[in-house]
Amino acid sequence: MWVILILLFAGTLSGYAFSRVKGFNKITDKASIYIIYALLFFMGLSVGTRPEVMKNLAEIGFDALLIALFAIAGSLFTAFLLYRFYFSKK
Asked: Are 47 and 53 in contact (CB under 8 A)?
């Protein structure tokens, strides 16, 4: 837990320190996307190497699909509301 909080704090301070560097946001945006791709790959690799998960995939697949769809729908709805109330130009 402390490692996560320390890394979050260090990243926030670093982001603030480098916020004035031209082009820094482009670099961090691209790096974030590729890091997310790598995390998704390794999560899939972890799931694929567990025989008990693969054996029960059909059984848990529908429930996982429903949870994922509702999570995506909730995220999109929340993002829409936040954009509408905080970022839309009036």
From this structure: yes
